[in-house]
Amino acid sequence: MTIEELEVQLLALTAIEKAEAIGILTQSLKNSGRPITKTPGVMGGDACIDKTRIPVWLLASYRNDGATDAFILDCYPHLSAADLVNVWAYTEAYPDEIESAIRQQDDADEILDTPENIQ
């Protein structure tokens, strides 16, 4: 079956059937992705995709800026769609933590971008 054929079938589903399909897909992806972990001394202890130095806040920041999952996966080819499902679930579960980490990074970037720090 092609994606186009699947799309036709998905669009023909009722709202309840679509919700059930999303649940099935989400569950299957959650079970296959790497977990989100915090390791002291790795990326300041921020939540990262397990066995990587890719912090959740960074990917959430990309998404906030309008990046699609396809774009992120293209930039990080060693990640899987299942990894992103886990990232988005973590982001949803801990929004204050992620927003705070993004703000801290934005503040650090702003300091680095001041004229006295640009050479």
- Rounded mean pLDDT is 88
Q: How many strands, which pairing sense, and closed or not: the largest β-sheet?
A: 2 strands, antiparallel
- Kindly provide the radius of gyration, computed on alpha-carbon positions and rounded to a whole number of angstroms: 18 Å
Give the oligomeric state of the chains in this entry, treating copies of one chain as homo and distinct chains as hetero: single chain
**What letter string, H or E per element, gives the SSE order?**
HHEEHHHH
Number of strands: 2
Name the poorly predicted regions. none
- Span between N and C termini? 55 Å
Q: Determine the strand fraction and express it as a percent band.
A: 5-15%
Shape by Cα distribution: elongated
Strand order of the largest sheet: 1-2
Structural class: mainly alpha
Helix coverage percent of residues? 55-70%
Number of helix segments? 6
